[in-house]
Amino acid sequence: MSKPGLDTLLLGTLEYIDTHQAAFLAAIQRHLLLFVIVLLISVAIGVPLGMASAKRPIFSAWALNIFSALKMIPSLALLMVFIPILGVGFLPAMIALIVHALPTILINTYTGYSQIDEAILENATAMGLTEREILWRVETPLALPLIFSGLRTSSVDIIATTTVAAYIGAGGLGEFVIVGITNMNSVIMLAGSLTVAAIALIVDFIFSLLQRRLIRYQIA
Amino acid sequence: MAGKIIEIRGVSKQFKNAQAYAVDHVSIDVSRGDFITIMGTSGSGKTTLLKMINRIHELTDGNIFFEGQNIHDLKVEAYRKKIGYVIQQIGLFPHMTVAENIAVVPKSLHWGKDRIAARASELLSLVHLEPAIYKDRYPSQLSGGQQQRVGLARALAADPEIMLMDEPFGAIDAITRQVLQDELLAIHRKTGKTVLFVTHDLHEAFRLGDKVIIMNEGRVQQYDTPYNILFHPANGYVAKLVASEDIIEKLKVLRADSISTPVQVTPDGRVPRVLANAPLSAVLGKFMETGAPQIYVEDAQGRIEGSILWNSLQSIASLRTEGAEYFV
Ligand SMILES: Nc1ncnc2c1ncn2[C@@H]1O[C@H](COP(=O)(O)OP(=O)(O)OP(=O)(O)O)[C@@H](O)[C@H]1O
Ligand SMILES: [Mg+2]
Description:
Chain A is mainly alpha-helical.
């Protein structure tokens, strides 16, 4: 069999998606569900932890070290490590993805709160604002750009890594990629990976819009 | 109401792990409406003293009273809201517009929206920034001098009892700095606010302060009028500090109103005039230029505050700085 050209390949991919619509929609749903759950849980853990790390130096020493180390582990390796511990399926995949996404969110949050100019905080204190007022009216708005860019980076990351997580039973679009690879079928593989890429781009675009709305000022 | 607004009693500060005292048994009274400058070389404890007044630093020893009450017993946030604070680094909130920056303390005090907006406009005009042009700008869209004006407006927002200013014009070019000094003096005259102003510039200290605190190694060396510091230095340190100033330099740093006396008679239209915060060197120039025996000192609105006779100016020139004995 001769190698098909790029145009035939793309047309074949579109046709494959069209003829397998139901399976595709289910996979997209699953992929997005996993993404949303992982993102929400990572934010729920990473943002408060990052905030606490910035405020409590003793805390930050270990939290940051652990999470920086976690960030270094390649996603596939991380996923494989979880198999003997948790087995395979949706839940182990979810946990592995959270562990993978958390460091970026935590470290960005930590950096966001730690990089605030001392003079600004000194003024806020000297003006007689309470700690709570300073947190919500000064620190958090100033940390937000970095927190947000952490969310944006890890969102794209989660979507991509979820594809790999199909290896440990996460489901989602990664299944098409695996089927494609094992059967040496470029069309099926492309159908899965192109859709993942499209979702990642769309999510990134949505974040960029939100970012522009949320953050009106520029730090000089 | 006159009387003491701040009483600093035997106050010391020793930082953790530091051997020497940053502030060493300082006692100072500040009367309401005073403009006091605190002058000293780097590390002499000026900032530390200021930050003990607004309770950013705890005292190691001694007490500070605000309107007769020990500041240690006051609710710290409420107390700080009565103090305007302006620093060299300015520290405007970059995520807030100029108007929002000014509104921070009023908002925290639950003022109404209209009152806050009116106050922001009023203050921007006071610091010579056209409200319509500047109120919606972000700090990053302002020059350093404009940012410091906003910093001043923000500190004045909730009508504080006292202003603490730590080298607010330290990073600003000489020309703009002089403009800002004049504006600050005008604001002081207009509002009657008590000001404690830190600087390490002797000229700035004399130009602005009705009274000057000279600090060295955490201790107050002299707390007096610019005139007395120049002509009656309290000790060798101060004498050395002002010794380099020859008579022309001294005339340059003393303000006209430091030697003027109230006018007794109906002002005479032909008598030449100078501004109250003009330096005495300008007064000397005026005498030489006009040959008049007397010059009136007027405020920015043209009201006559007092007069200077040629004789009294001349007598300064013949004054020798006391304390020459310190140099033997
Ligand atoms: N937070 C701090 N911890 C330890 N030591 C400090 C602290 N702040 C100031 N010091 C020390 O206290 C002394 C007085 O410092 P301070 O900042 O009050 O000086 P200053 O007169 O304001 O000087 P400058 O003109 O340079 O601003 C210095 O020796 C300084 O090193
Ligand atoms: Mg200082």
